[in-house]
Specification:
The protein is of the alpha/beta class and 352 residues long. Helix content is 50%, strand content 13%. Strands 1-2-3-4-5-6-7-8 form an eight-stranded parallel sheet, sandwiched between helices. Helix 9 links the parallel strand 5 and strand 6.
């Protein structure tokens, strides 16, 4: 068990997060309020009931929650509020930079009023307020979701290219991996990359190493999850040699049954093999976690030292989809903060 001093250190250390979903970060109490505003009936009537409903039980329940959130996250104001609350939670954890993935409704199959322009207007407004009030920098990655048609994903790619900037930095691909390989959407990836969007594809979570290879083949710069690459030693060596960053979310992987326990999770194995692993919370309230808690998991379950935790935090900064000058400035800020925290200085803190 960690000492209180170690827990305090983890709470105070600066952090950056690369893999967290907007829709999966809505506070249960907020969902209750938004549901009432939009006339959505949920299987709970108060904040305590909402919190209990959010507690992960199994994958179908996870999908129920996600769909339930989408029913009540409809307007620009809804999205502004949720982003602001994410920033408020981040500030409490000393998270200074976040890349948030969002998945708006498809204009070609509009099952919701949360269309891309509506969502973007809200998240940009929320991010501006977060920066002003908390000093937390936010950027956003569009996920068109891989269960949609090729035509829909291509539409999203063109929309993303047209709206890059002012916080919108990238294009991803989440959703069910089984029977939905990323190469199906090669035209979309080619379009957004040509426009200057950064790319990070979910892979190697519910499907094995072949999913990671497919993501790399379509030009993914980082890999969302990617943990099942460990099943292919040759792929692990390739990831290490190329410096490909994995956005790993240990508690999410346990909750969703990718691994049965932390003891069997490959975070430490991938790290020891030289793969650049970062730690993330994915969908925090759904998995009853936070980024701070994920760092506690690294220390408590995988035996990472304070210096190693700082190194992992810096990896997220180095892997951020930021302009070089901004990334160097953020890195210097982190290193200075680490040095003030009991004189801890991670390896390789001289710059990247």
């Amino acid at each position: 068990m960690l000492s209180q001093e170690d827990r305090s250190f983890i709470a105070r250390m600066p952090k950056a997060e690369l893999h967290v979903h907007l829709e999966g970060s809505v506070r249960p109490a907020t969902l209750l309020e938004l549901g009432k505003q939009h006339g959505v009936v949920y299987p709970f009537t108060d904040a305590a009931g909402a919190l209990e409903w959010f507690r992960f039980r199994d994958f179908p329940h996870f999908i129920d929650i996600y769909l339930g959130v989408m029913q009540s996250l409809l307007t620009s104001e809804d999205h502004e509020r949720v982003v602001y609350e994410i920033g408020e939670d981040a500030a409490r954890q000393n998270i200074r930079y976040m890349e948030i993935t969002f998945s708006p409704a498809s204009p070609l199959n509009p099952r919701s009023s949360a269309l891309p322009d509506v969502v973007l207007r809200g998240i940009r407004a929320g991010a501006r307020r977060v920066w002003q009030d908390f000093g937390v920098q936010m950027a956003f990655i569009l996920d068109p979701v891989r269960t949609r048609t090729e035509e829909e994903v291509y539409w999203f790619a063109r929309w993303c290219a047209d709206n890059l900037g002012d916080g919108l930095i990238g294009f991803g691909l989440g959703g069910t991996e089984v029977d939905n390989p990323p190469q199906r959407y090669q035209r979309a990836f080619d379009w957004v990359r040509a426009a200057g969007a950064r790319v990070s594809v979910h892979a190697g979570e519910t499907v094995g190493p072949e999913s990671v290879r497919a993501a790399l083949a379509v030009g993914s710069e980082r890999i969302g999850h990617g943990v099942r690459a460990v099943e292919d030693p040759e792929l692990v060596r390739e990831l290490a040699d190329r410096g490909v960053v994995l956005e790993v979310s240990p508690t999410s992987n346990i909750c969703l049954g990718v691994y049965p326990s932390y003891a069997e999770h490959p975070f430490r194995d991938l790290h020891e093999a030289g793969v650049t692993v970062t730690v993330n919370s994915d969908d925090p309230p759904m998995f009853n976690t936070t980024l701070t808690n994920e760092y506690v998991v690294l220390a408590e379950q995988f035996g990472f030292s304070r210096a190693e935790l700082c190194e992992i935090s810096l990896r997220a900064v180095d892997a951020a989809f930021l302009p070089d000058e901004q990334r160097r400035a953020l890195r210097a800020e982190f290193v200075a903060a680490f040095q003030q925290l009991n004189g801890v200085e991670p390896e390789g803190s001289g710059g990247a």
